[in-house]
């Protein structure tokens, strides 16, 4: 159902003479903070801009919202184009960025999204990018990205770190099945702090719905490790508090 279903005769008369050109144009984009864990590092997907403005500068993937798209549809399309993921990834709206001077082309309001994905193959640059790469977040501290993307990236990373405390989203960084040790290494990588293995295992297995056993085991150098899949709970109770950074 569209808004047309609720229009009155007065509304239709008003719209017949309404001129949207009487107002300054505003474009809407979606920008994606795509985070994954690769080779023990928390990494963000960046593209090197292949066209002006700011050609050659690293930026977050994203693009303009199409005339017939919702914001969520545009974000899902951009994620699929950049990573090949069309379903199953965690994708949530992060924040809206609308400073008047953030884009030199025109007034552009960006709705940013956070995507958490398992380790993926090396990305391929799209038509408007000269290069695409997963880069360690630790290497980007203080980096100047295109537009205001350094600010968007920082907010996305902090959102991910915070949500690991009270949700099961850490499991979205892993392919199934996984061990508790695999899950602990995700926490250590995203938070940037070491965790006590036995204490972490106790917290995970005592939290209802966090993970579910598959009934299978994996041979390791120290014996056999139980394998798990993602649980069904949306929020962890009790939470797993983030320790202070060293």
TrEMBL record:
GO terms (molecular function) for this protein are: hydrolase activity
Under CDD domains, the record lists: NUDIX_NadM_like
Q: Which domain of life is it from?
A: Bacteria
- The Nudix hydrolase domain extends over 24-159
Please give one Pfam family short name.
NUDIX
What keywords sit in the KW lines? Hydrolase
Reply yes or no: does the keyword tRNA-binding apply. no
PANTHER family given for it? ADP-RIBOSE PYROPHOSPHATASE, SLR1690 PROTEIN
Q: Which family does it belong to?
A: Belongs to the Nudix hydrolase family.
Q: What is this protein called?
A: NUDIX hydrolase
Organism of derivation: Phytohabitans suffuscus
């Amino acid at each position: 159902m569209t808004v047309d279903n609720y229009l009155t005769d007065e509304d239709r008369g008003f719209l017949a003479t309404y001129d949207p050109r009487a107002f300054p144009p505003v474009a809407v984009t979606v920008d994606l903070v795509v985070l994954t864990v690769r080779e023990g590092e928390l990494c963000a997907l960046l593209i090197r801009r292949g066209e002006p403005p700011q050609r050659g500068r690293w930026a977050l993937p994203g693009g303009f919202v199409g005339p017939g798209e919702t914001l969520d549809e545009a974000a899902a399309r951009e994620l699929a184009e950049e990573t090949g993921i069309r379903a199953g990834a965690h994708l949530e709206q992060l924040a809206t960025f609308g400073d008047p001077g953030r884009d030199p082309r025109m007034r552009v309001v960006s709705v940013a999204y956070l995507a958490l994905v398992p380790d993926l193959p090396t990305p391929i640059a799209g038509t408007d990018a000269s290069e695409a790469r997963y880069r360690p977040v630790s290497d980007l501290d203080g980096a100047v990205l295109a537009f205001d993307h350094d600010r968007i990236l920082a907010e996305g990373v902090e959102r991910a770190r915070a949500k690991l405390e009270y949700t099961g989203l850490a499991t979205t960084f892993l392919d199934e099945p996984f061990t508790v040790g695999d899950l602990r290494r995700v926490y250590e990588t995203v938070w940037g702090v070491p965790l006590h293995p036995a204490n972490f295992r106790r917290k995970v297995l005592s939290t209802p719905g966090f993970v579910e056993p598959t009934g299978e085991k994996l041979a390791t150098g120290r014996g056999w490790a139980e394998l798990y899949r993602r649980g069904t709970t949306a929020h962890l109770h009790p939470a797993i508090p983030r320790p202070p950074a060293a």
